[in-house]
Amino acid sequence: MRDLSTALPEALRVKEAKEGFISMKDIPNGPTAIIPKQPIEDDGDGIQILVGNMKTDYIELGPVVDRVYEFTLPREWLIDFAGSSEPLVFQYTYFAGGINEFISEKTLYRILH
């Protein structure tokens, strides 16, 4: 069992990614970030998703029973990285109860044209 007081939240994944790559052709409306279900949840939880140096606004997750863990990110955030040999960092900040801040593990994806 993980020690929740020191463990980082699990990394997000991108639904359209294949073997560490995201093809721009596969994301006409933007990539879909899937946030793992957290071990302890509260109706006041929130997240902020980070891609490279871009980040979403604070997202209130709402009541636990109605939670959605998939979020479409702006396609434009990836355009400048298409074809680069450097991977792009994806991660999120989880706000437990809306205040306790935990930064997730990083996920790296290379972006293809």
Question: In angstroms, what separates the terminal alpha carbons?
Answer: 41 Å
Q: Could you give the order of the helices and strands? A: EEEEEEEHEEE
Number of strands: 10
Q: What does the radius of gyration come to?
A: 14 Å
- Low-pLDDT runs of 5+ residues are none
Structure description:
This protein is mainly beta and 113 residues long. It is built from one helix and ten strands. Strands 2, 4, 5, 6, 8, 9 and 10 form a seven-stranded mixed beta sheet that branches. It is elongated and about 40 Å long.
List keywords for this structure.
113 residues; mainly beta; seven-stranded mixed beta sheet; three-stranded antiparallel beta sheet; 10 strands; elongated
Task: Provide a short characterization of the protein structure.
With 113 residues, this protein is mainly β. The protein has one helix at 76-79; strands at residues 13-14, 21-23, 32-34, 46-51, 54-55, 59-60, 70-72, 88-96, 100-103, 107-112.
